[in-house]
From TrEMBL:
Keywords: Cell membrane, Membrane, Transmembrane, Transmembrane helix, Transport. This is Guanidinium exporter. PANTHER family: GUANIDINIUM EXPORTER, SMR FAMILY PROTON-DEPENDENT DRUG EFFLUX TRANSPORTER SUGE. Pfam families: Multi_Drug_Res (PF00893). Belongs to the drug/metabolite transporter (DMT) superfamily. Small multidrug resistance (SMR) (TC 2.A.7.1) family. Gdx/SugE subfamily. It is a multi-pass membrane protein.
Length: 106
C-alpha cells in the first residue's frame, strides 16, 4: 500500500508542478489553486508512504516520478525540446529509480 501511495504522490507532484508553470508566478487563480491542492495531496501521500518506506527511498522515488513526469509534460504540453542528451538524462533517472526500488525491502 505504501508503494501505491508513493506512486500517486509522484503523479500529484507532476500535477502541481505543471499547474505552477501555468500559474505564471501565482498570478492566475485556478492554476494557483490546483498547485496548492496538488501539493497538499502529494505531500500527504508522501508522508503516508514514509510511515513504512525508508526516507531515502521514498523521497528519491517521489522526486524521480515528478522529474520524469514533468519532463514528459514539458515536451508534450509546453513544447520543450526533446534532445538526445535530455532523453539520456531521463533514462538515467529512470534507471536510478528502478535500482532504488530493487534495493529496498518493504
Amino acid at each position: 500500500m505504501a508503494w501505491i501511495a508513493l506512486v500517486f504522490a509522484g503523479l500529484f507532484e507532476i500535477v502541481w508542478a505543471s499547474a505552477m508553470k501555468q500559474s505564471h508566478g501565482f498570478t492566475r487563480f485556478w492554476p494557483s489553486i490546483i498547485t496548492g491542492l496538488g501539493m497538499l495531496v502529494s505531500f500527504g501521500l508522501l508522508a503516508s508512504a514514509m510511515r513504512v518506506l525508508p526516507l531515502g527511498t521514498a523521497y528519491t522515488i517521489w522526486t524521480g516520478i515528478g522529474a520524469v513526469g514533468a519532463f514528459v509534460v514539458g515536451i508534450m504540453v509546453f513544447g520543450e525540446a526533446m534532445t538526445a542528451m535530455r532523453l539520456l538524462a531521463t533514462g538515467l533517472i529512470i534507471s536510478g529509480l528502478v535500482l532504488m526500488k530493487l534495493s529496498t525491502t518493504g
